[in-house]
Amino acid sequence: MPKDPSRAVRLPHDHVPVKAGRIGVLVVNLGTPDGTTYWPMRRYLKEFLSDRRVIETPRWLWWPILNLIILTKRPGPKGRDYASIWNDERDEGPLKTITRAQTEKLAARLADLGDDVVFDWAMRYGNPSIASRIDALHAQGCERLLVVPMYPQYAAATTATVCDKVFDKLKSMRWQPILRVAPPWHDDPVYIHAVKGGIEEHLATLDWTPDVILSSFHGVPKSYLLKGDPYHCHCAKTWRLLREAMGMDDKQLRLGFQSRFGTEEWLRPYTDETVKDLARSGVKNLAVVTPGFTSDCLETIEEIGVENAEYFHENGGVNFTAIPCLNDTDRGMDVLETVTRRELMGWV
Ligand SMILES: C=CC1=C(C)c2cc3[nH]c(cc4nc(cc5[nH]c(cc1n2)c(C)c5CCC(=O)O)C(CCC(=O)O)=C4C)c(C)c3C=C
Ligand SMILES: [Fe+2]
Ligand SMILES: [Fe+2]
Known about the structure:
Elements: H1 5-8, E1 22-31, H2 38-49, H3 59-73, H4 75-85, H5 94-109, E2 117-125, H6 130-139, E3 142-149, H7 156-171, E4 178-181, H8 189-203, E5 212-218, H9 222-226, H10 231-246, E6 253-258, H11 271-280, E7 285-289, H12 298-314, E8 319-322, H13 330-344
Parallel strand pairs: 1-2, 1-3, 3-4, 5-6, 5-7, 7-8
One fe (ii) ion (FE2) is lined by residues 218, 259.
Protein name: Ferrochelatase
InterPro entries: Ferrochelatase (IPR001015), Ferrochelatase_AS (IPR019772), Ferrochelatase_C (IPR033644), Ferrochelatase_N (IPR033659)
Family: Belongs to the ferrochelatase family.
């Protein structure tokens, strides 16, 4: 039987055109501003920081802080940070460039599944929006939709908010695709093996050896953990499995949480404080790996590669390296291919 029933069924001559029977795979990453100047930065930060999954502070308290303080002060300096890592050729942030490349390579790797599996990508905040890409997949006849949130560790602030946005879109559709969402892969052996391989490959390019490797994950407020978010446990498990795979103890491969925002306590240990403490305690050679980020972005290239490198050098450290994310490398693609093939089982 052909996979696309519209090719098999003869429709009445006055019937609306029907395309059907296909499967859409939608890769979704966090987001990035449309530009680095004040207004695109402000729009992006407003969308991001108005998300109740990201900021759980009560609305009445958060509204004035966001609109009167953050959205006036933050777009300028953060826009300059984005400008320092911007992909000028495509006029976009690296997260977008890399997510596109990952999706294109994923489509190539899964080409054996045939033309009825269609691949696309979207950003949770900014563009291309999730709704617009679901529309595009629907228009191509996708009756089934696999969403792949690009987060190895689950957090309400990341994975769940992607689902919220997908559900919002489906709610508005008469003919909804049937939905699957890829689960997090924080403890998948393919992922752990890929991160280990990425570390080893990068370290082999250096003419020095790190005394310590710091495994840094994006932080969230500590209160999210206390309310039951599994994110901390997923990060801790990734870190433990990576230590076991690399034969390192918790001093050789350290844990840190980065990108603190606001005044609340966040998950500890803090990456920036750890980097400073390590340098002050005599560590001269430090490598930082960021396994929670599937694609390099502001938080890895600028925050780790520039800001934390400065902290290390200012406090007595000598050699510092930021290990690139898996991105669209063969290892990175092994992980995405494994996850996607597994979740398509029974559909293809
Ligand atoms: C309270 C605020 C934030 C929470 C909670 C949070 C969680 C979280 N974020 C990521 C991944 C990324 N965040 C990125 C940028 C970024 N994050 C926040 C705030 C919170 N994130 C802000 C305001 C920004 C924008 C930059 C800035 O103003 O500081 C990025 C980079 C995007 C890019 O285009 O480069 C990523 C990726 C995770 C995984 C996470 C929780 C688990
Ligand atoms: Fe973030
Ligand atoms: Fe935990």
